[in-house]
């Protein structure tokens, strides 16, 4: 397949300022008539070239006349045109029912819906399907009225009416020019939860959350989150909504989490539907975050869009940064930051260290769907955060205002964004731009030396950016490090917090009048997405975990202490657990801390993150070391855990920050009681499982049971399955919990579950709940006999035939073969080779598998 390169960008030869679409909708055969008003862009004599995928034109007309000198090249429709402005009409037929890729127009749960980002629109009609072509859309839909009583599209509704033969029609008009990837329609039998929002300039917007009727009671949380998001974007970024209606539709079959189509967001139902019985606190938080994310795209993505797909992080990194800010403002900012960093370390750091590493602004791709990655989204958000840190809040807001005003209604680049940051602040970000072009997670070496008599402390900082595919040599980055020194004896801060911009390979910073031995608190708030290697002792880390005034740094110190302990355990087979146990006790006894924060601090880093610290990952040794530490924390503090478990018991369910914090910490306590080997643990967990009036408590109890050998284990899984067998989203949890189990038989259990009647590759959520979760389970996936690798490859080859995009997303665990021993690595490579050699492979899976072999 051909490589697409960033430097090959050329402005479009033809523009399409206006388009009218007419859909004669039917699941088996939908007829699409398109009327494009095209305009020659600049002096050239190139024909009009329209992207297509899978259709053949039934008719082509130019200025009202049927023509026959059009031709098909590859999948493009090429139309020779003589003048500078023409009307080009095409008609095609497509088959939504047979669309298993879930790109373009497809059927889900009896309804019809679309997904066009990145290149799905070409599967609907012939069009120059690139984000720098902005058009005003008028869309007419007609369909059978009883099967599809609701007809929605982008923009505002214009008119509707009945047709003969039990059909009806509706017309929608979107006045804002938009790229084709933001096009959407929905036809279905849907119920709506309506609300209104009055913008700050006094316009009333009609809001609607559309779902199947039975799900209506699960939509209040999403509607509430939408209103909060609309108010937040006005307050924090000065951005107001611009249409008269804003609709969200939930569908069960969806590749992404959700999609920000102008005025008509389409969501994976898992990011809309919630009630206490079926959704956990994490689900509630995730829903609010994704509703906010897609809403915020209305400005960062829709009003200002991307010039080409290499600029994807322009909208995604920025919008993730915006949704993170929104979530931080809804509850504990410290806990939100911890969760985001945990996610970055779980997904983005391994990506940046592996064969699929790519810059935040990539240079080339085979298939753009493969670049909706943690690097583009989450590292991209860290880049925006670093610029906000460097500029300070006022200049940053001035810069985003400038960006939105200057580029409103256009397709922009990452460079445009950085230029606005510079212009509004007067700062030079030349060297900072390397964050966009260089892949790899920088490593920072930090050590501090103190002259006890003289009072002078010398901090030495060094940076190193590792080689990544295609980038053997790296230049130094600008790394904003918030840091502070604390006195090891008194626990008092010895300096103010400083923001150091490390921009050299090595730098020395001198502090005078340091009267006691200093302990270094560095990368506070995770001010840069880097790995810090310091020589801080276990005692210093324990000290920081108790005394640091930056909540993230406290968490980080504890994590580092736990990590060092598990790494020692994995390498040497034994480790001194006492510093961790006493640091955890200190945290438990700190009355100032809120519950959610305590829970985060006391959770052990995941096995995969421990593995990332080793030269060669030994999954069994990591598992043993982690379990040993869990047992030591459980046993050493069993009375405290039992006490905590009792006092954190709550009355009826409430969704408040305090109640959420209690549930989270109580879940952690239950986990440690079980880890201690308490003979009562199984019964305790089962009681919680049965008595729970909410999914958070029920699932945390089931997880404890699923990870152990308890007599109650099977019963809990069966009860859960039977209780929720008609709710797909909850069944996903049932599959996922088993696929994530830390037990030794998990690989075999997962194989059995893949043959379960409720398992299907056709639904992306279900596929991810089993196969995705299994790939993230280091111990089970890397079973020494290679059965995990074989299983994943089999599943990916099967899934690729249905849905290449989702298959390719699940491949990365196989690509990490360099990190494992020869025996495992050889088996992983063999499976990758088997995938690459599969006839008819998609370019999505081919790109990921072949790059993983390099
Ligand atoms: N819908 C996806 C997102 O919002 C892609 N734009 O990130
Ligand atoms: Zn997005």
From TrEMBL:
Keyword Signal: no
Domain Peptidase M1 alanyl aminopeptidase Ig-like fold: residue ranges: 440-534
Group of enzyme by EC: hydrolase
Aminopeptidase N-like N-terminal domain: residues covered: 86-182
Domain Peptidase M1 membrane alanine aminopeptidase span(s) in chain numbering: 222-435
InterPro entries recorded: Aminopeptidase_N-like_N, Aminopeptidase_N-like_N_sf, PepN_Ig-like_sf, Peptidase_M1, Peptidase_M1_dom, Peptidase_M1_pepN, Peptidase_M1_pepN_C, Peptidase_M1_pepN_C_sf
Cofactors: Zn(2+)
EC number: 3.4.11.2
Catalysis performed (reactions): Release of an N-terminal amino acid, Xaa-|-Yaa- from a peptide, amide or arylamide. Xaa is preferably Ala, but may be most amino acids including Pro (slow action). When a terminal hydrophobic residue is followed by a prolyl residue, the two may be released as an intact Xaa-Pro dipeptide
Domain Peptidase M1 alanyl aminopeptidase C-terminal: 539-854
This protein's UniProt keywords: Aminopeptidase, Hydrolase, Metal-binding, Metalloprotease, Protease, Zinc
Any one Gene Ontology BP term: proteolysis
A GO molecular-function descriptor: metallopeptidase activity
Family membership noted in the UniProt record: Belongs to the peptidase M1 family.
UniProt protein name: Aminopeptidase N
UniProt source species: Sphingomonas metalli
The organism's taxonomic lineage, starting at the top: Bacteria, Pseudomonadati, Pseudomonadota, Alphaproteobacteria, Sphingomonadales
Gene name of the record: pepN
